[in-house]
Design goal:
The protein is of the alpha+beta class and about 300 residues long. It has 11 helices and 6 strands. It is elongated and about 95 Å long.
């Protein structure tokens, strides 16, 4: 069996045990913060620290990463203990001296070094002040939904609706008519629906209401609830997503930009040669300039 397959089996085993235990532990209060160097187990006299448990949690499939670590504590700890025992016996039997393991350890070492160094370069780009600055700069591009403040009078049939509408057209107060005639729960409040966006109402209602201007009264509108007379009181643009709502998205974007910029700078200084599998030089495919693309599309002139 390949090592990668074995690793997958170990992770799947821990995850499956975690499901049943998590259900029982889900209602328990969250544990206080634990120091990374807290000893959570010993195997043949060697310590296992809480930090290893946190790292194992981060390596689980996404659906299990969302579960609290407390709910997965025992199965993850058992997995780490099993790996520690396996690593110890493998080292005793000289597996760390085999060519395959030496190569894999070298790759793992390079990856860890690269990730650690890159994370340190990216960290200044995702500080709170940088996130807030990007949020403010992009704020105008993330406007909220259009909202209206409206009143309505709900009636059982079109004839009643037109009778009430005629009284309103003749000067009757809309709110008072709503209190007197509306069948809806908002009637006692003068038909006041407050501010709402288009998705908050049934389509037939929203289509008419959002096409009106402030102060206008609609013709009777039929919906599944009955016949409505709508009056729009005011319109406004709601606020866009808050900083806290957009923070994860902004952090990811700034981190990606920082990584791309860092790697581009390193590539400019590095002497890089790439080869095809047959040993011939590999020439990177570069996008043609926009001017060249435009010229390619021009038809040849007929003589």
């Amino acid at each position: 069996m390949k090592i990668s397959q074995l690793r997958g089996l170990l992770i799947a085993a821990a995850a499956s045990v975690a499901i049943s235990q998590a259900v029982a532990q889900d209602a328990q209060p969250k544990a206080p913060a634990i120091a990374p160097d807290t000893v959570v187990a010993t195997v043949d006299g060697t310590d296992i620290f809480f930090e290893e448990l946190e790292n194992a949690h981060r390596q689980l499939p996404p659906q299990y990463q969302k579960m609290p670590l407390e709910a997965l504590y025992e199965p993850l700890l058992s997995q780490i203990i099993d790996r520690r025992m396996l690593a110890t016996i493998a080292e005793k039997e000289g597996f760390d001296k085999t060519e395959e393991v030496i190569k894999r350890l070298a790759v793992a070492r390079r990856n860890i070094l690269a990730e650690s160094w890159l994370a340190e370069q990216v960290e200044p780009a995702v500080r709170e002040d940088k996130l807030l600055a990007r949020y403010e700069a992009d704020k105008s591009n993330f406007k909220g939904e259009e909202e209206i403040h409206a009143r309505h009078i709900l009636l059982e049939n079109e004839a009643e609706a037109r009778k009430v509408l005629a009284e309103i057209r003749n000067g009757a107060d809309f709110a008072e008519m709503a209190k007197q005639y509306s069948k809806g729960p908002s009637g006692k409040n003068g038909g006041d629906l407050g501010f709402f966006d288009a998705k908050s109402m049934v389509p037939e209602f929203s289509k008419v209401a959002f096409a009106m201007k402030a102060g206008e009264v609609s013709e009777p509108v039929k919906t599944q609830f009955g016949w409505h007379i709508i009056r729009v009181e005011a319109k406004r643009q709601s606020e866009g997503p808050s900083f806290e709502q957009r923070k994860p998205e902004i952090r990811q974007a700034l981190a990606q930009e920082a990584v791309a910029s860092t790697l581009a700078g390193l590539r400019e200084k590095a002497d890089i040669k790439m080869f095809n599998t047959d040993g011939s030089p590999l020439v990177p495919v570069k996008a043609a300039p926009e001017g060249d693309k435009a010229d390619e599309k021009k038809p040849a002139k007929s003589e």
